[in-house]
Design a protein that fits this description.
It is built from no helices and 4 strands. It has about 55 residues and is an all-beta fold. The chain has one domain. Strands 2-1-3-4 form a 4-stranded antiparallel β-sheet, with no helix packed on it. The chain is globular, with a radius of gyration of 11 Å. It starts with a strand and ends with a strand.
């Protein structure tokens, strides 16, 4: 599962990942300029959180 939040915590996008390689584009998701938090959750209970800066 991939979730994208604004820096204020508003959820902007969420999708379930498919097996293999997954690609996302900020322009295709309709994200405007700003700072976002991307949270990636795997089935193995491992979460990764990264910062995304869209110019």
């Amino acid at each position: 599962m991939v979730s994208i939040y604004t820096i204020l915590g508003q959820k902007k996008y969420e999708t379930k990942l498919q097996p293999g390689v997954n690609n996302f584009s900020a322009s295709n998701l309709g994200l405007s300029s700003g700072i976002y938090v991307v949270k990636i959750q795997s089935e193995g209970n491992e979460d990764v959180t990264k910062k995304l800066i869209v110019k």
